[in-house]
């Protein structure tokens, strides 16, 4: 099983950078996970709800530790999100195109996390699973 297949076997997901604006990739990724039947939680410190779901300020604020994390944030924010994900035990991280940060990737891999940071887009992958 490859890294993407491993990511997609997760039971719970969080989306860092989820947005209320439907044209933004953070919103599209969140909706795609929901449409694919995944249990997903939006992360955005500036929003109270996204697509009718409570939004959480950070991973630590979630009601559970998600198995997987999709990141759609600027790289400087990605570093912070990944550090928090490592500290709470997230197993899979997918840095969407533009969110990649080499420092964060290295730290996550050293922590034993399955990391996808090769420019692959979850929207493309999920479209193929429908």
Automatic annotation (TrEMBL):
InterPro entries from the entry? CoA-bd, NAD(P)-bd_dom_sf
Per the database record, which ranges form the CoA-binding domain? 7-99
SMART domains given in the database record: CoA_binding
Which SUPFAM superfamilies does the UniProt record give?
A: NAD(P)-binding Rossmann-fold domains
Which Pfam families has this protein been placed in? CoA_binding_2 (PF13380)
Q: By its UniProt entry, which PANTHER family does this protein fall under?
A: COA-BINDING DOMAIN-CONTAINING PROTEIN, CYTOPLASMIC PROTEIN-RELATED
Know the name of this protein? CoA-binding domain-containing protein
Please give the organism.
Roseimaritima ulvae
């Amino acid at each position: 099983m490859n890294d993407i297949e491993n990511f997609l076997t997760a039971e719970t997901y969080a989306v860092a950078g989820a947005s209320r604006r439907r044209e933004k990739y953070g919103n599209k990724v969140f909706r795609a996970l929901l449409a694919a039947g995944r249990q997903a939680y939006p992360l955005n410190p500036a929003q109270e709800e996204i697509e009718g779901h409570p939004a959480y300020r950070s991973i630590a604020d979630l009601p559970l530790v998600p198995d997987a994390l999709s990141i759609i944030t600027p790289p400087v924010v990605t570093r912070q999100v990944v550090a928090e994900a490592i500290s709470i035990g997230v197993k899979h991280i997918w840095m969407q195109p533009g969110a990649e940060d080499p420092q964060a990737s290295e730290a996550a891999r050293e922590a034993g996390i399955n990391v996808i940071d090769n420019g692959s887009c979850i929207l493309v992958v999920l479209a193929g699973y429908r």
